[in-house]
## 1
Amino acid sequence: MPCCVQYYAAFEVDGVQVDASTVETPSQSTFIEAFGSGPWTHFSEIAVGDKRVAVVAPELRLATELCRDRKDRAEIIAHWMRDHGCDAPLLRNAMEARGIDAATQSSVMATIRERGELEVRD
């Protein structure tokens, strides 16, 4: 993707859509998904068969979707975080690094805390 200074690929693996992209732009922030060291510093591991695969932290991904105004995707991620927990300071830092306005940040944090029993790590 020349406009984005990024390489992107999409595959189907055993019937599952898998997307991959590179990080090609330097940044001083470690809280941005697609720039600098953020995805290498903050990541999660998921099971793929008998292997573990590193993926970008959902907190960084949510901030990216908010920044790109992809509300449908952001809502799915926020609800997943509500159901499975999240690193609240990382999410706050990621939203701040992406310039997400205070009202949206408050709304997202309220969404992920909706159920009450959620593990939100502060």
## 2
Amino acid sequence: MGERPRLSLGGGMKGLDVRITLRVAVVAVTVLGLLGFAGERELAWRDARNQLADEKSAAAAASAEVEGLIDISGSSSEKDMARLLDGATADFRSELEGQADRLQKALADNKVKATGEVVSTGVVKFADDKATVIVAATGTVQNSSTKEAEPRSYRLKVDLLRSDGKWLVSGLEFVA
């Protein structure tokens, strides 16, 4: 049996230098590829973390607005209404302001005392500066026609827009 022919890129040390250079190049390309992949994963992780923080902020704003709506009474309705208006976009604020006097009068005339708290939230839509949050809340309502506070359960769909870094309610509706 004969000897296998060997591929040689030159004589002696020169061939060894080419093999070492080729190995270094392969290692360098591998390391650069891994660094690129790690950098891309870091950016994706940072984006996901930022989105999660934004979703939490949107849910907190929705919760605050819902609590402001269900934790209201005839004796403090002016202050309660101001708190609601503060968390609303300009369009939704106008809508609320249009109903504020009538609502405050009804609350005072009927001696309404409502309390409540948010029990859960879920972000159902999120894109850029828009979010939709479903809010579940419980509370009690007492008025001039009830002897004691009656339990209530609420589920609301809250649409929000981010304006100057702050989440504001642009729409709110009770859902089944």
## 3
Amino acid sequence: MGMHNLSNEKKKDWLDALLIDNFGNCKKHKEKFNEKNVFCLDCGISLCRHGKDSHSLHRRFQIYKYCYQDVVRYSDLLKYFDCSNIQTYISNNDKIVHLKPRPSKEKKQVIIRSKFASQNHDESQMKETNITTPQKPAGTCEECGKHLQDKRNQFCSIKCKITGEEEIGINQNSEVESSISIAEPYEYVERVNLRKRPRKTTPMRSISSFVF
């Protein structure tokens, strides 16, 4: 499915608004179920269920929660944004992508209960240890370093892809500028032969022309 034709400036505007938004409760509508879970691309704002009807003719897509993080359907966003090289996940049989990087996982605290039996009474002892989840042998996000399930992907979220590609563009521009040398002004120089012309000499008469 191809992407809609959008100018780079217009695309940057709604992408910036999408990534800045926190999609919390709507302050305009105080009714129940007022969580903002729809994003209007034309207006660059998030909407709740009570305000989305006024944007029914605009381009918009749904925002979902996946493991407490904001995500969007891959098929919905693909209409307006190139989602290639971004790690996708499956939720309710739909492919989804994260809007922002997932928070770092802190060391998990695991409580191990050890029971020691004795002849007189049983004693229980609680031990708390820190266990770090080992990193799976897969890829990592080129921007934030988060774990990727598929090593063929390069980014974990939409934000990381945008940031990474902007940095690549800046580096490429700087390399092009540094590779261009300042050309010296061209001057036309006429080459002149400085050799002197041979002197004219008196032609010698033939000896046979003299009469004795």
## 4
Amino acid sequence: MAGEQDVVIEIQARNPTTGHYIKRNLQTGRIEVKTDGKPFKGVPMNRIVLAPANSAIDPETAQRGEEAVIEYLNKKARQK
């Protein structure tokens, strides 16, 4: 209908250390990662979190940490 705003149920952000785009479904809490360096199509960017890359962490360690956090968060989302 005219005048109604679309409800955003997914947002994405870019991990500056790994270069991956991470998409989160705000209803289910489910997280997906896109590793090709291109953003998800049709998903708005989360502009609130803007952090520089941490040069003290090597990319391999950052990727392992990213995978562990996403696995944990997805597991918690399934338990809801």
